[in-house]
Here is the input.
Amino acid sequence: MSDYYLRVLRTYTKYFVDMAKELPELQAMVNCHKGQGDVYHPEGDVATHTAMVIVDSEQFKEQLSKEEYQVLLMGCLFHDVGKPLQKIGDGDHAEIGYHLVKKILKRPMFSYLTRVQKGKIADIVKDHSLIFKIKRNMNSLVLKKLAKEDYTDMLLLVDHCDTTGRHVTEQAKQYGLNIIAEARTIITKIRACTK
Here is the structure.
């Protein structure tokens, strides 16, 4: 077994076996295949995908402050927490997850996070697939709004990890990463024009 898959297995055990004892919302992600079609998520259930996303987030740990990495890690952990509650045919697991994670982060086990961090995590969960929904219109008002937000840089990192943390072809991963790069470029230009 490769080092990558050993790290995924350890991550899966940490969050979806050990931590899930205190967080039933994580347990609900185990064996949940809602929104996990074979095209975008051939790796399996929501928990497996999430473990892969978390492992992929480790590449950014050294570049971020401790507080920033906590936001990235929790954004990755909870990005699909709404999938078990979404109705079949309703693709808006992000909105469901947003409301759910706001409640989860009020629990004592997350008291180490600041109010600002918790707000960013919830916003990341809500907006984590937004740029893929607007990919045909990258000059949209959505990007102008995101350019003003203080969580956008972390959001793009979560989207990066969400894209790479799955068993799809390298071509499919690169397609997603190109969309993220285009959004980042446009957001950077918008920010430069508003200074």
